[in-house]
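Q: How would the structure tokens look for this protein?
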Amino acid sequence: MDDRIKASFDAVHASQAMKDQTMRAVRQHAASAKRPARRWRLPAAAFAAAALIILSGWLWMSPTAAVSIDVNPSLELSVNRFGYVVQVQGWNEDGEQLADGLNIRFMPVSRAVETVLARQEIQDCLAREEELCIAVAATREGQQQALLDAVQQCAGSGRNIYCGTADYSQINAAHECGLSFGKYRAYLELAALDPTLTPRQAAQMTMRELRERIEQLGGDTQAIPGGGYGQGKGQGNGQGAQHGREKGQN
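A: Here is the predicted structure in token form.
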């Protein structure tokens, strides 16, 4: 570049001192024009790294699935695409109290469910022959099935514990009613039979009370995830499933 500039100046009729001064000015301008390109390399790399961190954080914190645990503490776990709990929400007074005493955020979902089921509040409900419903829902079928398998293994052969799936697209509607999505399906079924029932009333009912009321009014308990006691989409476990099937045959 210096040769081209020098050749151009040779053709200009001016004093040598003026040519030298002008040449120096051109060189300084050319050098300053190059500097921003070098300075921008580091910010561009930093921006890319920051964008990667933000994207990773978004992927980690964004729920793609949920687990609803209802007996009468009514609890919901939001789960990310990697199978970890990112949020814990109680959906009635008992559920809020239970959620406040849990430290299960960022646990694998299987450990989180085991921790919930081991709580004294849950064990006391089961000792009173209450029915515990665990519903799973996910945006992807593969994750939904994996979650169902995981919670069924956690529930083991516990009596009156039932597992099933639900429609992920209904979660927002359930929350607008102040209900977990697991209890929401039972509420819809019972509200169709008894239009006077309010979501607030349903929130305070146990899963056993909801199911029994549906049966009394001639409704279909298959609408409750796991409420079919091992039949259809919902699945029961161990003694609980057998207990339900015996009821259905009577």
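The chain is about 55% helix and 15% strand.

The two ends are 97 Å apart (CA to CA).

Upvote if useful.
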